[in-house]
Write a structure and sequence with these properties.
The complex is a heterodimer of chains A (about 210) and B (about 400). With about 210 residues, chain A is an alpha/beta fold. Chain A has two domains: about 1-90 and about 180-210, 3-Layer(aba) Sandwich (D-Maltodextrin-Binding Protein, domain 2), CATH 3.40.190; about 90-180, 3-Layer(aba) Sandwich (D-Maltodextrin-Binding Protein, domain 2). Chain A has nine helices and eleven strands. Chain A has a six-stranded mixed beta sheet with strand order 2-3-1-4-11-5. In chain A, strands 8-7-9-6-10 form a five-stranded mixed beta sheet. In chain A, strand 7, helix 5 and strand 8 (about 135-140) form a beta-alpha-beta unit. Chain B has about 400 residues and is α/β, with parallel strands linked by helices. Chain B has two domains: about 15-325, Bira Bifunctional Protein, Domain 2 (BirA Bifunctional Protein, domain 2), CATH 3.30.930.10; about 335-395, no CATH class. Helix content of chain B is about 40%, strand content about 20%. Chain B is built from 14 helices and 15 strands. Chain B has helices at about 15-35, 50-55, 80-90, 135-150, 165-175, 180-190, 195-200, 205-220, 225-230, 235-255, 300, 315-325, 350-360, 375-385; strands at about 40, 45-50, 65-70, 75, 100-110, 120-130, 160-165, 220, 260-265, 275-280, 290-295, 310-315, 335-340, 365-370, 390-395. In chain B, the strands form three sheets. In chain B, strands 1-5-6-12-11-10-7-9-8 form a nine-stranded mixed beta sheet, with helices on both faces. Chain B has a three-stranded antiparallel beta sheet with strand order 2-4-3. The longest helix of chain B has 20 residues, at about 15-35. Classes of the chains: A alpha/beta (about 210), B alpha/beta (about 400). The interface of A and B includes residues 59 and 85 of A.
């Protein structure tokens, strides 16, 4: 029995699609119900429907053997996991954004204030990579408001199409990381359940290679 | 005014009597294994100068529980067993002939960076074998690690063994730059194949060499894995590492422990003080390894004595969690026997005392009730507390 933690929503649907194409019976995972654990003993699969930010935690602690989650969540949570496959979908970028006139001038502002939903990613980027200290202000949504109402100079957030940004007079200033959906595996499960997990990884990789062609 | 007087601090737990009893038993089983192999127990104070960890760059300062002594010097709670043992061996035992075989069973304290819920205080038992080098010494320590896990009742055990020098040698052979080497090392730890491929391409490696790097995350097994890699490497350091691993497999075979062993050359270790073999032990039902160990030939030198060393530690706390989740039934009984007496009867107490003393010769735990329970109350109490046998003395001395 392999326990798989999925991020509720579109990411879960896409993960189930790939598993199905790779030859697994995922009907349990598609069951429309409010159950949080969906189990199919015959197929040897159990799905946990979790909040995306919690998926790495379930997998790190071994409550789930395997998980599918966005790279943004992995970077923010910083868990000790195996990150085995880049599924290639859910593609977007983690960016520093701000008023368009700041383009190429970001480094000229000292003691920046940064509004973000991702304080750990932000801290790592500014402190470890850009070697500067910033004031991080955590918000839970609509972080674009930050520079608009003077709460901060810039934001760090996910950019997909960029429409929300442009409509609010903001622009991408720097790219922090490329984001897409990843398959993660618990470090012990990879050893103790190698007979089930390794073939699954191989089949998913095969399927991805086929789709690319 | 404190609001926290009812609670244990984050990351720490109290142990119920039945868990504690099982843990003590397990600790003693570990001691027996270690002593049986000729290791001697040491006790370190549990409070150290931070310098033993930080001035040697062995542990991040952020991971230590820190406080000050009266002179303002920075102290910390014992973070691990190895570094205090090395300090001990390089000072107190500096005139003893090598090799030294030492062990400890103690509590460790650390801020776990990986997140809440994980224990910050836990018990480890481990050995340090100092002043001996080579695969035979490595084999001795790995065999003790296996015996320790078996002794406390872990049945599903897997030990993965790697060799840090293999990757160093391979990196040398492939001519990887320092930067690429670190990138690939991190990617191997994450089993991140995309990162390996990208870095290999950037470094201009050919298909076969890229495949060799990918094998590090994909190939685990027995002798065959060693041979697969042998066919692909030319670096003398890497070849020597493979020879060493093969020797260890031979030794494990002679012990009858080969079935527990997996060779995993992708096991590189985040701890940068390992200089040779490195191994981890896994079982079901806990998401973290219960055993960790390896060879650390350069640590003692930081304390002024050149001395090769190899060791391991087992987290008893994690191992017991695993055993309980695997269905271990803890003994709930409070005692084997309870003896009561009628206070109103002259001489009953003297008889009860004599009886309890006699019973204690045979049973490990005998309660002599001094709270004045009646026969009925005594029966009720022993039922509630799973005490199998009850005696009630209501006769006095014969007149």
């Amino acid at each position: 029995m392999i326990t798989i933690a999925l991020s509720k929503g579109r990411l879960a649907e896409q993960a189930l699609d790939i598993l199905e194409k790779a030859g697994y019976d995922v009907s349990a995972g598609r069951e429309k119900s409010r159950k949080l654990i969906l189990e199919d003993e015959k197929a040897g699969l159990r799905f946990i429907m979790a909040k995306p930010a919690d998926v790495p935690t379930y997998v790190e602690y071994g409550a789930a053997d395997l998980g599918v989650v966005g790279k943004d969540t992995l970077l923010e949570e910083g868990r000790d996991l195996y990150e085995v496959i880049d599924l290639g979908y859910g593609k977007c970028r983690m960016c520093v954004c701000g008023p368009a006139e700041l383009k190429d001038k970001l480094d000229t502002i000292p003691n920046k204030r940064v509004v973000t939903k991702y304080p750990n990613i932000t801290r790592h980027y500014f402190e470890d990579i850009k070697k500067e200290s910033v004031e991080i202000i955590k918000l839970h949504g609509s972080v674009e408001l930050g520079p608009l109402i003077g709460l901060s100079e810039v934001i760090v957030d996910i950019v997909e199409s960029g429409r929300t940004l442009y409509e609010n007079g903001l622009d991408v200033l720097e790219t922090v990381a490329d984001i897409s959906a990843r398959v993660v595996v618990n470090r012990v499960s990879m050893q103790m359940k190698a007979d089930e997990i390794k073939p699954m990884i191989a089949k998913i990789r095969e399927q991805l290679a086929k789709q690319e062609v | 005014m404190s609001n926290n007087k009812f609670y244990t601090p984050d990351g720490f737990t109290d142990q119920l009597p039945e868990v504690c009893a099982f843990k003590r038993e397990a600790e003693n089983k570990l001691r027996n294994v270690f002593i049986g192999n000729g290791y001697r127990e040491i006790e370190t104070p549990g409070v150290e100068y931070c310098d033993i960890y930080t001035s040697t760059d062995l542990v991040n300062a952020e991971s230590l529980y820190k406080f000050c002594d009266q002179k303002g010097r920075l102290l910390c709670a014992r973070y691990d067993g190895t570094v205090p043992a090395v300090r001990f061996a390089t000072n107190l035992l500096k005139d003893e002939p090598l090799p030294l075989r030492l062990f400890y069973v103690e509590n460790m304290y650390r801020f776990n960076q990986t997140g809440g819920g994980k224990q910050n205080g836990f018990t480890q038992g481990g050995v340090e074998f100092m002043g001996a080098e080579g695969s035979e010494a490595d084999g001795e320590v790995i065999s003790i690690a296996i015996e320790s896990a078996l002794a406390i009742g872990i049945k599903d055990l897997q030990i993965s063994i790697g060799q840090v020098r293999f990757f160093e040698g391979l990196a040398c052979q492939l001519g990887l730059s320092e930067e690429d080497r670190i990138l690939i090392k991190n990617a191997i730890q994450q089993k991140d194949s995309v990162m390996i491929e990208n870095t290999a391409r950037k470094a201009g490696l050919d298909a076969r060499d890229t495949e060799t790097l990918m094998m590090l995350i994909e190939c685990q097994g027995g002798y065959e894995v060693i041979e697969q890699f042998r066919a692909r490497v030319t670096d003398p350091e890497a070849l020597k590492a493979l020879d060493g691993l093969k020797d260890i497999l031979d030794i494990m075979d002679e012990y009858g422990y080969l079935k527990y062993i997996t060779v995993d050359l992708g096991l590189i270790g985040v701890e940068n003080y390992y200089t040779g073999i490195i191994f981890k032990g896994y079982t079901y039902e806990v998401g973290f390894p219960i055993i960790g160990g390896g060879r650390y030939d350069n640590v003692a030198e930081l304390f002024g004595r050149k001395m090769e060393a190899v060791g391991f530690s087992m987290s008893l706390t994690l191992a017991i969690t695993a055993l309980m989740r695997q269905g271990l039934e803890l003994k709930k009984e409070q005692a084997s026997v309870i003896v009561g007496y009628d206070r109103a009867v002259k001489g009953a107490r003297a008889k009860a005392i004599a009886l309890a003393k006699a019973l204690r010769e045979e049973y490990t735990s005998v309660i002599l009730d001094s709270s004045g329970m009646s026969e009925e109350e005594l029966d009720q109490y022993s039922d509630l507390n799973n005490i199998p046998a009850t005696f009630y003395v209501n006769e006095g001395e014969e007149s």
